[in-house]
Design goal:
- The protein has helices spanning 17-25, 47-64, 84-97, 116-131, 172-179, 183-186, 192-207, and strands at residues 2-7, 29-36, 69-75, 101-105, 149-153, 164-167, 213-220.
- By secondary structure, the protein is an alpha/beta fold.
- The chain has a single domain (2-220), classed as LmbE-like (Rossmann fold, 3-Layer(aba) Sandwich).
- A seven-stranded mixed sheet has the order 3-2-1-4-5-7-6, with helices on both faces.
- Strand 4 (101-105), helix 4 and strand 5 (149-153) form a beta-alpha-beta unit.
Length: 224
């Protein structure tokens, strides 16, 4: 299985880190795509330097999760918008990698409840996945591709209609080890690890799939 994980920022993949690791461990081909340059993730570091730091942190974090392919699209952090340029960039990734499954941000969040970059990524992915399945739009890449499955992962806000839970109890320590690579982000937020474990524990209790669980909302599924 080919899997594409679309993220607004370098560290957003942590919401699905355990699931990503399960994919790589069973031999699936996973690519993680970051749409922004991460330059807005701190107030006390030069933006260009911060982008370089976060790119390296992302590469290291993904390596721990077993991810071999990482893409940085380089749009400005905090100012990601739905337009021709961003849509073409996402669509070309889809037509290039031809994923069987996509994980992305939830596309329907209300303004002001989550980082707008997250919501824009979710909307770009859905529209790009729609357009790439048609023979039109040659500017999006040569090959037509219909992605069979698309799932939204949880970001800052809770998913309104969670449909799918993945037991990550057995890979929890790998997920946290990967997240620990993002020192530029989590040094100022030492509570993140405890809050993330609490959130996964709550999902585990609700779903009863395991002690710790990651949650997703199915946006597109395919039975056969």
């Amino acid at each position: 299985m080919r899997v594409a994980v679309f993220c607004a920022h370098e560290d957003d993949e942590m919401s699905a880190g355990g699931t990503i690791y399960k994919h790589t461990q069973r031999g699936d081909e996973v690519v993680v795509i970051y749409l922004t340059d991460g330059s807005g993730g701190a107030m006390d570091i030069d933006p260009k330097k911060l982008s370089q730091i976060r790119y390296e942190e992302a590469r290291n974090a993904c390596k721990i999760l077993g991810v071999q392919k990482v893409e940085f699209l380089g749009f400005k952090d905090g100012f990601l918008f739905f337009n021709d340029e961003t849509l073409k960039a996402v669509a070309r990734i889809i037509r290039n990698y031809k994923p069987h499954r996509i994980y992305t941000h939830y596309p329907g969040e209300t303004l002001g409840r989550d980082n707008l970059d997250h919501t824009v990524v979710g909307r770009l992915v859905l529209e790009a996945a729609f357009k790439t399945s048609y023979h039109n739009y040659p500017e999006l890449g040569r090959d037509v591709w219909r992605t069979p499955e698309i799932y939204a992962y949880e970001s800052i806000s809770s998913l309104p209609n969670p449909t799918t839970y993945v037991d990550v109890t057995d890979v929890l320590e790998i997920k946290l080890k990967s997240a620990n690579e993002y020192k530029s982000q989590y040094t100022a937020m030492p509570y993140w690890f405890d809050s993330e474990k609490d959130r996964m524990r709550r999902h585990g209790i609700i779903s009863r799939v395991g002690e710790y669980a990651e949650v997703f909302e199915a946006l597109r599924t395919q039975i056969f």
